[in-house]
Amino acid sequence: MNDYAHIGRSVLRREGRAKLTGAALFTDDLKIEGLLHGTTVRSRVPRGRIMGIHFEEGFPWEEFIIVTAQDIPGKNVVAHLIQEQPCLADGVINHAEEPILLLAHPDPERVQDARERVRVDVEPLPPVLSIEDSLRCDPVIWGEDNIFKTILITKGDPERARAKGHLQLEATYYTGAQEHVYIEPNAIIGEATPDGVLVRGSMQCPYYVHHALHELFQLPLDKVRAAQVETGGAFGGKEDYPSMLACHAALLSWKAGGRPVKIVYDREEDMACTTKRHPSRTRIRSAFAADGTLLSLDVEFLLDGGAYMTLSPVVLSRGALHASGPYRCPDLRIHARALATNTPPHGAFRGFGAPQSLFAIERHMDEAAHRLGLDPAELRRKNLLRTGDAMATGQIMRDEVDLIALMDRALAEIRYAEKRASYPVLNAGDEPVKRGVGFSVFMHGGGFTGSGETMLHSVAALEGTADGQVRVLAASTEMGQGANTVFTQVAAEALQAPLDLIVVATPDTGVVPNSGPTVASRTTQVVGKLIQDAALAMRKTLLDAGYLQDGDVAAAIRAYVAQHGTLRTESQYQKPDFVQWDDTTYRGDAYATYAWACYAADLRIDLVTYETQVADFVTVQEVGRVLNPTLAAGQIEGGVAQGIGWGLNEEVIWRQGSMANHQMSNYLIATAVDLPRIRVFFEERPYAYGPGGAKGIGELPMDGPAPALLNAVQHALQITPRQVPMTPEVLMDLVEGA
Amino acid sequence: MRGQPSLCEVLTPLNLAEALALLAAHPEARPLAGGTDLMVPFAAGRLPDRLFLNLWDLEELRGIVVTDGEVTLGALTLFREIAAHPLLQREFPNLVRSAMVTGALAIQSRGSLGGNIANGSPAADTPPSLLAYGAELELTSLRGSRWVPYADFHTGYKRSLLAPDELITRIRLSRMGEGGFHYFRKVGTRQAQAIAKVSLAAWARVADGRIQDLRLALGSVAPMPIRAKGTERILQGQAIRNLPLDAALAALQADISPIDDLRSSAAFRRKVAGNLLVDMLRGLAPT
What we know:
The complex is a heterodimer.
Chain A: H1 16-21, E1 36-42, E2 48-55, E3 65-67, E4 92-93, E5 99-105, H2 108-115, E6 118-124, H3 131-135, E7 147-155, H4 158-163, E8 167-175, E9 187-193, E10 196-201, H5 206-217, E11 224-228, H6 241-255, E12 261-264, H7 267-273, E13 280-288, E14 294-306, H8 312-321, E15 331-340, H9 354-372, H10 376-383, H11 403-413, H12 416-427, E16 433-445, H13 452-456, E17 459-464, E18 470-473, H14 483-495, E19 502-504, H15 523-544, H16 553-564, E20 567-572, E21 581-582, E22 587-588, E23 594-606, E24 611-622, H17 629-648, E25 654-655, E26 658-659, E27 678-683, H18 700-703, H19 705-717, E28 723-724, H20 728-736
Parallel strand pairs in A: 1-12, 8-28, 10-11, 14-15, 18-19, 24-27
Antiparallel strand pairs in A: 1-5, 2-4, 2-6, 3-5, 7-15, 8-13, 9-10, 9-12, 13-14, 16-23, 17-18, 17-20, 21-22, 23-24, 25-26
Helix pairs in contact in A: 5-6, 8-9, 9-10, 9-19, 14-15, 17-19
Chain B: E1 9-11, H1 16-25, E2 30-32, H2 39-43, E3 51-54, E4 64-66, E5 70-74, H3 79-83, H4 86-91, H5 93-100, H6 105-108, H7 113-119, H8 127-132, E6 136-141, E7 144-149, H9 150-153, E8 154-156, E9 159-160, E10 167-174, E11 181-187, E12 198-207, E13 210-219, E14 226-227, H10 229-235, H11 245-255, H12 266-284
Parallel strand pairs in B: 1-3, 2-3
Antiparallel strand pairs in B: 4-5, 5-10, 6-7, 6-10, 8-9, 11-12, 12-13, 13-14
Helix pairs in contact in B: 10-11, 11-12
């Protein structure tokens, strides 16, 4: 075997030892001279006008750094897609927990104490707290109609096709918000003077932070720097929110004359104030022929975006583009809107809109099968996309994947046919524990939607060092998912070098080029490809210069750098030639490629307690080539765990636009004993445009569990659940007919 | 963390006499055993107490003593020690199981039975088992010691018979031998590390086809852990082949007074409490 065949091997995590032994330093671990501790005074109401800010008399306020909107040197904005969300509320409050004022002090206890001694007088205004109120414009809180973004995808004539249906079905599905519960809450250290701004901390996307600081301070781009520190999980929750923290910490430091200021949220603040998965409401009107052929789909997809637009249009886009599922449908209409409400803005979360719309279509397919008297597998067999079929946007399915075979493999693994027949017999008995089996079939587009990747112009680079190492320079962050390791494998294999030669540089905007945000299942598929190309280019440079005769890459690099001073190769994203996309009509290739999967669940539902236990869970997925089997399986298992949580128990309870259960004792994520052994199977079909043939994998496993679970609930109990989380309370109401 | 350690003072006595003297002198001091209940609101900045009496070093409050008729547990007995005790496993399995579902292993290695009782949470895991086993508590102050039935101890939400200068020092269980019927079930939605939405513990003795003795207790369905005495009365002495199920369920609904809160709804708690009773009776009288 080739010693440098690193791809396809379960190479150990590059930073694994440091994390395991505690040597890895996270933001709150950093020891910094002269540090001030920052905190945030927030709104307690969802909507209102600020009438005054009062500081308790007799308290030594002169010891504190105090920042309000008036102290902002540039624009009072946390720049995302548009410049809309204020860094600090100025006059008006648009959501509960909105930041109003910042405090810093050398003593972390004093700053906590002081926070309670600031009183903000607010004249409340009527809030919008639901999708329904927002639709009714009751009242208008954003723009003219509360709509952040509308997307319309049409093909054929769904109304006319509907009329021909043997079965016409209409149903509405709901999904709740979801909190990321990354292990490390948000944490940032800022240092800011007119000479420059440096922000370090827990983040997914250093260049997003860089952009936000640039706008906030109106400083030249090269005076602003954002650097990632070891990050303890993110899942999308550190895509846009760290820009807010970074702006806050930097503002405090600015006012403190450049002293470093650290802001670390505790779990309660993090859960209550930062972004969550968008709640959704999806109404599907469908028509099927008697044999189960899907004739028409009309999907109305609504997202609760919260108080500011932030990333909602992009989340909406991905949701809309996945709304018709992996099915052929000649006539369809997908009408998607993201709406404003007076809750903290909802944001990125693994799956990014797709889990919401896929939940709806995958539940709907099971309901339709039930109504048609067909097995759900038979209904899907009739309608699953095949290579060469046209998808919702007219995209021709190029992936050489046999979805029916994928589905059949998952069904065989979970012994679907046998359980489908035997469980109803078993369930007819007196035993309170009922059994059910169900599944979902779905896909996840890899990389940015539509022309997003082209517009990003992502760049990654490799640099040879004087001592013969290779530094990977990319803005893509390691956040627990394994990016460091995969980048190392890809670079080392392309260079035909040992792994130890490769060092992945800290993502620091002062050092690394902009390889784009660490999101959208794009890090391996898109950035990994850039690294592979840069590594191939470096190898060619070394070969062409005559330094690689004996194959010793380290020696060659040392010699080259000694001779030429520097060795650096870069690669910039080039879209595959076939990709054509029109953002105005939503026609064309929505994603260059997709990962495909079928997930199947076997449940035990206890009608004494209405608790659902997942007894077995099978995942079969086609993700191109698997670069690192252990890391890939870890991604699937983790995503399934989050998906089971979202499907069953993770309920965000809203009170006046604020998360009331913002504690881990009251917001129940799955523990190890709540999860079955998650069985992971890969179908590997190398993708021509991914590094080593890989596709994106990170988000896919979030999409499938919820509909698979609820389809199994329908099988077990002969009820029609249409919302997640399906908590025991919800299930009790369905079972008892309340 | 929002608690402010620098504002707090912790008194650490080395023996019980010293502890009682300190408590008599500072009745406002909050007794602190394992800290597993207090540290949560402290970290959240919601614990008003500033003075604490650290009981951790009081060896007098440790240990499980078994005699022919009784088992006496020091108030500082840890959940982990309860879970590992062979005699408790045999004769008081509900207590063992409720200890094993209290928090995670770390909490079980620090949290104590006395602390669980004193904290007075209606959702605590061990109190229903203690109530079902007819436990008694020893309350001690400089004024002396007294034994009280645990069923009388809680008097309302976070209120109890404990005087400001008293500590819970021991918990006593009468040994009922083997062969009784034991039932414990905690409904926390999540299978571990959950706070109970409803829990039910029962102990019964069946003889000649009839329920001779029955104690039934519930958590999270009232302002405090409660005995379901109305339900017990309905079932007491009844033939297990012909139990008055509807009357028992009605009595249970009168015994409990659950509320809607962040963790569940009153309606769910009422329904599931009834389901647990049925489940328990199904175990007691298998068909």
